[in-house]
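User: You have something folded?
Assistant:
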Amino acid sequence: MTLVRRFQVAPALVRLIRKERGSSRITEGYFPPQSGRTSFVRVDGGQCHLVLVTSDNGAASEERTEVPRAHGDALLDVCAGRAAYDRTQVALGNGRDAVIDRYVAPGTVDVVSVVFDTPDEAGGFPVPPWFGPEVSTDPAYEGRSIALQGVPQPGEIGLSNAALDAVLDLIEPRYGFGRYAAPSRNGDEGGVVNALRRIATPQPEPTPPPPPEPEPVQAHEPAPPPPAEAAPEPAPPAPAPEAHPDTRIDDVIESLSQALGAAVPGGEAARDDGTPAFERWTVRPRRTQPTP
């Protein structure tokens, strides 16, 4: 046996939660009610179940039997009434989950439900600030009544700053890491969650910046003189021109000529045939300039 507590919830908060967490479409077809029992067929995606609910003093027990999808579609055609809603499951903390049902047929209404195992758990449940008025004792918000009699008219549900802030805390841990957005870069605030948080949180009045302090006047130092240019190094002296080899040969020949002439007494001696005994060598002129 389980206990269910139901609450109204503001449509804007449901829209924000569904945008970040997604939802799944469920269709239920209800048969005419019987004493203490409710039977209906539920189609959830590719699964189809025939459900029998027995109620006793506010507690309910549920039995499910899986049936083929074709049989489920046939049962939906003979049901007395249908209801279709988009369901989103959220974690409230401490191992407790809540389901948000946005009914889209036969009308529009938003209901959040929490299931408990014992009356003590149901009585000690701390109601989150984003929950609206409780409708646990109003049968108009049960799935059977909505399918057979239509949706109730809850009227306008107030949206407080505490409710919006609680929803942002609920979805912010996953925001930016699921399939709807990427992690923000460089720690910049962006996206619908941070924008709503800035709207929900009052911002302090901006304080004007202090006037800038005057910069101290600094004396201009004279520029250092440019470095003196180094004097060019003197060019090495050109090597003395080497004496042409022909000049040395001329000196040797002239010295030999003088020595040989001095060795003959009386200068040039005459032979018996009248020719001089010694003929002085003819010295060719000295070439002081190299030949081209």
Remarks:
- The domain at 3-158 is CATH 2.40.320.10 (Hypothetical Protein Pfu-838710-001).
